[in-house]
Amino acid sequence: MHERFKYKTFQDLIRKSKDLGLDLPLSEDISPLLEPLSLAGFRIQNRLVVQPMEGYDAEYNGSPSEMTERRYLRYATGGSGMIWYEAVAVTGNGRSNPRQLWITKNNSDKFSFLNDKVRRTAARNGFNPLLVVQLTHSGRYSRPEGKPKPQVAAINPVLDKTLPYVLTDDDLKRIQEQFVNASRLAARSGFNAIDLKACHGYLIVDLLASKERKESVFGGEETSKRFRFLLETIDWIRDEVPGMLITTRLNISDLYKGGFGVDGNGLVDLTEPRMLTEQLKLKEMELINLTMGSPYFNPYVTRPFDVPVPGQKVPEEHPLEGVARMISQTSIMQKEFPEVMVVSSAWSYLRQFAPNVAAAVVKNGGASFIGFGRSSFAYPDMPADLMNNGKADPGKVCISCSGCSRLSINMRPTGCVIRDKRVYGNELKKLIADGK
Ligand SMILES: Cc1cc2nc3c(=O)[nH]c(=O)nc-3n(C[C@H](O)[C@H](O)[C@H](O)COP(=O)(O)O)c2cc1C
Ligand code: SF4
């Protein structure tokens, strides 16, 4: 049964997880999170990663705005070893909203400027984060002008209530080229790595699942066709931007019928994610960021929470079950593919106890890096606190209230309404005043 977080001590948390039949590991010693790691010639200072978190605050031409810069400078002073920039569109038509970042030849200098500032700010604080950019096409969830403009790999009756536009092979070839062009611009703007976003229902994971796409070189029963878009785009980027580190944020299970990484009942089946990861390994991909679920269909899978966004259903399952699912499935992948460094997701629900559970997971070889999403909005300097004080401050943690998701669903500038109240508490007030 779903329940709000009410655990005052580790013992309370572990007792609850045992009652639920879960086996959450725990380490008093958080030092595994603070150990450096070398990756493709970079020395990553620690295992803590700012996960990609869309801020819905770009300029209408896709450039980072002052609000965007503010968010990234908070991360820069926070001490994470890696800052994984939010979804940046490769084409205006595939933006998730009119204020999504979008990199073009006319604004790539603005991204360079932001990266320089992030690097300088981090260096002043003794940090040197790896900067990864997440490139995306929003596919089924495109809203370039604010209204839904779904563009899908194949129709999925579980997801599609109205008839969406099914992208042709020619459309997809053009989109591949847009990913390559955006990668070239991202490399010139000073990013260290490019993530081809393949998660949360957006275009690339939709293609990975597109068994119902018939007579296409990019879909159908055979995995070689469904994996083709991603694998071919990686090769193409490697040719055009030699030496660039390429990664992907991959859904290892969509957890709905007709999705990727599921059986006929829509339950987790890692057979195809394993096959794909094997191919990524053969392409010498050294870093992968794993996640599950869809914020549009089963948000409790992607980000276990205390309360849903108003109007959405309270899920049946306990949030700790969601946390444990993400840990266990990710650990399976990391242990089977030790050559690929895995970033693990969905830690914020655990609040001040997250570092202790995460340290145990890293120590046991269940992940190489630990990514924080909502927690990075709420408490971007948690890594610095862990370095200086050996623990997280319960007064600063994310309380998984879904306030930021409420802003994002309504396409408002998004951040933490609780811990960054001056800015985002105000955004929420405006939203409520507008009757949303
Ligand atoms: C407001 C909001 C924006 C997000 N934006 C992105 C994004 O741009 N790219 C992405 O891969 N995931 C995105 N996510 C998912 C997070 O990266 C993360 O996987 C999720 O919040 C669970 O991690 P957490 O428990 O640390 O928050 C977003 C989540 C939220 C709540
Ligand atoms: S608004 Fe803040 S506290 Fe609430 S879920 Fe988002 S980051 Fe966490």
Give an overview in words:
- This protein is of the alpha/beta class and 436 residues long.
- The chain has a single domain, classed as Alpha-Beta Barrel (TIM Barrel).
- It contains 15 helices and 12 strands.
- It has helices at residues 10-19, 66-78, 108-124, 169-188, 203-208, 223-226, 228-240, 271-282, 299-302, 319-336, 354-363, 374-378, 382-389, 403-409, 421-433; strands spanning 37-39, 42-44, 48-50, 82-89, 130-136, 151-152, 165-166, 193-196, 245-253, 287-292, 341-344, 369-372.
- The strands form 3 sheets. Strands 3-4-5-8-9-10-11-12 form an 8-stranded parallel barrel, surrounded by 4 helices. A two-stranded antiparallel ribbon has the order 1-2.
- α2 runs parallel beside α3 (108-124) and α14 crosses α15.
- The radius of gyration is 20 Å and the shape is globular.
- The protein starts with 9 loop residues before the first helix and ends with a helix.
- The model has no long low-confidence stretch (mean pLDDT 97).
Number of helices: 15
Q: Enumerate the spans where pLDDT stays under 50 for 5 or more consecutive residues.
A: none
Question: Given the helix and strand composition, which structural class is it?
Answer: alpha/beta
Estimate the strand proportion: 5-15%
Overall pLDDT metric: 97
N-end to C-end Cα span: 28 Å
The value of Rg in angstroms is: 20 Å
CATH class: Alpha Beta
- How many strands appear in the DSSP assignment? 12
What multimeric state do the chains show? single chain
Question: Within the CATH hierarchy, at the fold level, what is the topology?
Answer: TIM Barrel
Strands across the major sheet, in which order?
A: 3-4-5-8-9-10-11-12
Question: In total, how many domains does the architecture comprise?
Answer: 1
Shape: globular
Write the CATH homologous superfamily.
Answer: Aldolase class I
